[in-house]
Design a protein that fits this description.
Elements lengths: L10 E4 L2 E4 L14 E5 L2 E5 L5 H14 L10 H16 L6 H11 L3 H18 L5 H16 L3 H14 L4 H13 L3 H19 L4 H16 L3 H19 L4 H16 L3 H19 L4 H16 L3 H19 L4 H16 L3 H19 L4 H16 L3 H19 L4 H16 L3 H18 L5 H16 L7
Antiparallel strand pairs: 1-2, 3-4
Pfam families: TPR_10, TPR_12
Organism: Nitrosomonas aestuarii
Keywords: Signal, TPR repeat
Length: 485
């Protein structure tokens, strides 16, 4: 099973604003309209409305720490919004809060470490002067989490958000923020633990048809989707879509994003025609809203290509992938997760067309980029290695294929645990290569493990389950064992 990566869209809200977390067209009033240029090892962000010292600090941080977060370069827009949120919050502090006023001045100048020191002092004072369970203490802890996020110190940010929640356990903003950070760090189960009470809080505060409720449902859908719970994801996406259609109507970016995510869920369930229907709606709307060369338009084209590739319409898939890649290179430059994703997917199409060495070229470029962005244990790195294993296996380089498959399996087990479709895919592919080497017992062992997982996660009628069952029967036939019912 060749793995084509589809991309889905995370929605987030910061304070009272619901925004798309992907870069989007922005005006320059009050803050940043970033133009991001990537040249070899360095990132240049040209920005209006924010001190150049702040941008210099961000550039340095991304270069130093970009492997620490899932897609750090993708987070530039989010970082700038987070920066503005913290400035706004410090501005709203009482005039008597001199430490907050000074912290704001330092933050405006890009002095993140000095800002943190003042916020820590302010937090300590509030614990002494006020009830340690006061709203002000919780907000201070939340702001310290925000400054740690701006420093790209995500584990420490989580600690401060936890402190805020320990003081105000039902604060939907704090719950949502820690849930989003866990999601962005690929901690999907932890994300759900916080997003579910955030949703309950938003429902209580706002009722059913409110943008924050829709956004949290979309993000819960993404978390369940990432864990392989596709029907559960679809339920959340559909509720989010119905709400946003009621609030905004058809021509709103979040509506297109949720349709893209619905397409990806149906894709995961092997319902490729249904996926295409959602993707085409998202693409039409995205072009109308953003124009041809917007990152979200490229994402939807990438996903459409994956669906057409799954229907063996390989040339149509290549056409969509190449349009997406050209747009992404223009938006991001070479070393970006979405560029790596599209190259991985182009490799998969060429592999399907029997052009295995051409596929390997694409996979190796994608793997090098993703290792630089994410480090070893990330789903995108596992996906690239899985696909390299398939291509080398097709060239009869079976032991090289096993090496890649085993690395991919170890990574996915660490990320997901046993009962995830990706883990099953890696085991199925190890079965294939051991079968090719005539090691039928070993192949059967891997196929049986894969089949058990796929039946639980995707059901008996999913295309991947059926393929694995056929592979198992073929291996058993080679040993003169009976077919499984």
């Amino acid at each position: 099973m060749t793995t084509c990566r589809f991309i889905f869209l995370l929605l987030c809200y910061v304070l009272t604003t619901t925004v798309d977390a992907r870069p989007e067209d922005q005006n320059t009033e009050g803050w940043c309209n970033p133009a991001v240029n990537v040249t070899k090892e360095y990132i240049t962000i040209n920005c209006n409305g924010i001190s150049p010292k702040v941008i210099t600090q961000l550039e340095r941080l991304i270069v130093q720490k970009n492997a620490d977060l899932v897609g750090a370069k993708t987070e530039i827009d989010y970082w700038l919004k987070k920066y503005n949120e913290l400035i706004t919050d410090l501005t709203k502090r009482p005039a008597t809060d001199k430490l907050a006023a000074k912290a704001r001045e330092l933050l405006v100048e890009g002095e993140l470490n000095a800002t943190e020191a003042l916020l820590k002092e302010s937090f300590s004072q509030k614990l002494i002067e006020q009830d340690q369970f006061s709203e002000a203490a919780a907000r201070n802890a939340y702001d310290l989490g925000s400054i740690k996020e701006l420093q790209l110190a995500y584990r420490e940010a989580l600690d401060y958000y936890e402190k805020a929640i320990s003081i105000q356990a039902d604060n939907a903003l704090y719950l949502n923020e820690i849930g989003l950070l866990h999601f962005r760090l690929a901690h999907y189960k932890q994300a759900i633990e916080y997003l579910e009470p955030a949703l309950a809080g938003n429902l209580k505060s706002y009722g059913e048809d409110h943008p924050k409720v829709a956004t949290t449902r979309n993000n819960l859908g993404l978390a369940w989707h990432s864990l392989g719970e596709f029907h559960k994801a679809i339920n959340y996406y559909e509720l989010a879509l119905a709400s946003d259609l009621k609030t905004y109507g058809e021509n709103y970016p979040n509506v297109a994003s949720i349709r893209n995510n619905l397409g990806s869920a149906w894709f995961s369930l092997g319902e490729f025609h249904k996926a295409i229907e959602y993707y085409e709606q998202a693409l039409t709307q995205g072009i109308k809203t953003h124009g041809e060369n917007h990152p979200d338009v490229a994402i939807t084209r990438n996903n459409l290509a994956s669906a057409w590739n799954s229907l063996k319409e390989h040339r149509k898939a290549i056409e969509y992938y190449e349009l997406a890649l050209a747009s992404e290179l223009k938006s991001y430059g070479e070393n970006h997760p979405n560029v790596a994703s599209t190259r991985n997917n182009l490799g998969s199409v060429w592999n399907s067309l029997g052009e295995h060495r051409k596929a390997i070229e694409y996979y190796e470029i994608a793997l090098a980029s993703n290792l630089k962005t994410y480090g070893e244990n990330h789903p995108s790195v596992a996906r690239n290695r899985n696909n390299l294993g398939l291509a080398w296996n097709s060239l009869d380089e079976h032991h090289k294929a096993i090496e890649y498959f085993e690395l991919a399996l170890a990574s996915d087990l660490k990320t997901y645990g046993e009962n995830h479709p990706s883990v099953a895919t890696r085991r199925n592919n190890l079965g294939l290569v051991w079968y090719s080497l005539g090691e039928y017992y070993k192949a059967i062992e891997y196929y049986e493990l894969a089949l058990s997982t796929l039946e639980k996660s995707l059901g008996k009628n999913h295309p991947n389950t059926i393929k694995t069952l056929r592979n198992l029967d073929t291996a058993r036939t080679a040993l003169h064992e009976p077919f499984r019912d």
